[in-house]
Specification:
single chain; about 0% helix
C-alpha cells in the first residue's frame, strides 16, 4: 500500500441524519465524482471528524471535516 499525502479542499455530498454532514456519501476530486462504498473507520478529535472511506475507484481516502468552518479536506490517499 502506498500513501500519498497532499491535502486538498474538496466538495463532499453527505448524508444528514440527526445532524448535518453526518457522513460522506460521495466527493469530487479533480473533476471526478467518487462514490463512497464503505466507511472503514471514523473518529473525532477536538477539532475535526475523520472518515477513512473506500470508493468506487478501488482506493481508500482519509477525509477530514471541520465542523466549525464547514469545510472538508482530503488528507490522504491510500493506493493498494
Amino acid at each position: 500500500m502506498r500513501q500519498l499525502s497532499n491535502i486538498y479542499v474538496i466538495k463532499v455530498e453527505c448524508h444528514s441524519g440527526y445532524k448535518v454532514n453526518e457522513r460522506p456519501i460521495s466527493f469530487t476530486l479533480e473533476g471526478k465524482k467518487l462514490m463512497v462504498e464503505k466507511i472503514v473507520d471514523r473518529w473525532r478529535d477536538p477539532q475535526f471528524n475523520y472518515f477513512k472511506v473506500l470508493t468506487d475507484d478501488g482506493k481508500a481516502y482519509l477525509l477530514r471535516y471541520d465542523e466549525r468552518n464547514d469545510e472538508w479536506k482530503l488528507e490522504k490517499v491510500y493506493e493498494y
